[in-house]
Request: fold
Amino acid sequence: MKVKAAVVEEIGAPWTITEVELGDPVAGEVQVRLAASGLCHSDAHVVAGASPVPLMPVLGGHEGAGVITKVGPGVTGLEEGDHVVLAFIPACGTCPSCATGLQNLCDEGAGLLTGQAIADKTFRVTRDGRPVIQMCLLGTFAPYVTVSQASVVKIEKDIPLETAALLGCGVSTGWGSATEIGNTRPGDTVVVIGVGGVGINAVQGAKFAGARFVVAIDPVEFKRKKAIEFGATHTYASVEEAAAEIGEFTWGKMAHVTIITVGEIKGEHIQQALSLTGKGGQVVVTGMGDATQSTVDLNLFELTLLQKRVQGAIFGGVGPRTQIPKLLDLYRSGHLKLDELVTTRYSIEDINQGYQDMFDGKNLRGVVVYTDADR
Reply:
């Protein structure tokens, strides 16, 4: 079928609305009619060339939810009409990582930026007979997607799909960075650097886990105000502004956990976070940086003698088949804010404006909403 799609044609170019050919599902795949797609900074990394892809164009988008319209041979546990969230990390369930409980590190994730389908290593999206890469093997900047069942999590039909879409990346990643990887405990002090679509969920995750102090650091006043609504006890515009006061209200103990969720992580952010972290504490590195960047600022004296840790995190440290249903239960019980995360809704034609609003700090999360006119 031919579908409207937002693609990036070359590094540094804006998103272009074009028509692509979407293949039907083969064995182990489903086709999904999407209701919405979140606008995440990770797609902007592809545009900037910070996340390497083997070819262009790229069909963007990796946060989506919708309804299954077709089911390929051999698919189990899914059928037409099911409501699903697409997870940007597939979980095959059988590779060594999945088998040892690390579904967020599924071996199929090695192909996320190749565009080659898990089922047969061919391309499910083409244009004029040439392959188009699906971001994270999803490509949710189109109203229909054909994806592996490993990337699909079934949800209850009464959950609003517009907000459920955010569980496929931002919510799960931020929440788990505080609660799972960060292992926040009651009474802890948690610092979140960068309060966008991921960081705001680290804030509410830390609050839910019982942190005494939740400190949100972001230069944008709008985001600092929103952080208070989501559970922050203190907000600051910069690390420098926060440092002295954190030392004061923690009686010099500093943070138990510092989570870096800036849109584009730089080498200097590591030491900045480490300086806010107390003895035996942990820095959780959740934000993405340039794939070619391998230099960081790190005081080794401080790292060793104060027994601090620096820990990477993907999808919040939890597999999507565990995390997404759990978070939906928390949403139902009122412990997780989902609807409040959506700041602005856009049509697919307005996707460049959506990303500009993200860069300008106007959104917690912008969402592309699909209508019948897009199909």
Summary: DSSP finds eleven helices and 19 strands in the chain.
